[in-house]
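Continuing the batch. This is chain 6 of the set; chains 1 through 5 are on the previous pages. Same settings as before, nothing changed between runs. Recording input and output for traceability.
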Amino acid sequence: MDDLSIKRINELYKKMKEVGLTEEEKKEQAQLRSEYIASVRADLQSSLDNISIQNEDGTITPLTKKKKH
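Output for chain 6:
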């Protein structure tokens, strides 16, 4: 997500607190928020994908997803 979108999210939040938003602005805010959340999740997943664990014997094992029961 670029800085311009984050700035717009903040502008809409401030306007919402001060005077309220129009329906169009509410839709824009919801769309920007969902894009922001998706971006944060993708960044977190990317970070987790690059984590490895060093075992006691010195071998390195990449993290894997837990199996669901």
